[in-house]
Design brief:
By secondary structure, the chain is an alpha+beta fold. The protein has helices at 59-74, 107-113, and strands at 11-16, 19-31, 35-42, 48-55, 84-89, 94-100. It has a single domain, classed as 2-Layer Sandwich (Phosphorylase Kinase, domain 1). A hairpin with a 3-residue loop joins strand 2 (19-31) and strand 3 (35-42). The chain starts with 10 loop residues before the first strand and ends in a 6-residue tail after the last helix.
Length: 119
């Protein structure tokens, strides 16, 4: 266990300068080929976030991470997309992308609940 992990709770603390985030390891929101998304809490403000933890262990995953961040920065003013709050590169292999937390499940969950109607 590193000095940024908590022995009492299943959390990892990520230091982002003025803010520290507690990643709740037992609260996985989703998973993909290069990343896992977990719930996180800003330990200063108490604000909840979703954090995408990208594993960049080879060239393809690094290129995917860079492209995703480039696209997100180009679309940062779009009100219909999840907002990226902070990015932390912890090591050559891990990138943490802290995004606004949206409860209510996945887009597919919402489509099923609303029977495809969003107006």
């Amino acid at each position: 266990m590193s000095n940024t992990d908590s022995p009492c709770y299943n959390v990892k603390i990520v230091d982002c300068g003025a803010n520290k985030f507690a990643i709740l390891n037992d609260q996985k929101l989703g998973e993909g080929a290069y990343a896992v998304v977990k719930r996180a809490v800003n330990t200063v403000t108490g604000q909840e976030y979703a954090v995408k933890i990208m594993r960049v262990t080879h060239k393809d995953s690094r290129e995917t991470a860079v492209k995703e961040l480039e696209i997100a920065s180009e679309l940062e003013d779009c009100i219909n997309l999840v907002r990226i709050e902070r990015v932390k590169v912890e090591s050559a292999n891990n990138i943490y992308i802290f995004m606004e937390y949206c409860d209510g499940g996945t887009l597919v969950d919402q489509m099923i609940r609303r029977k495809g109607k969003f107006r």
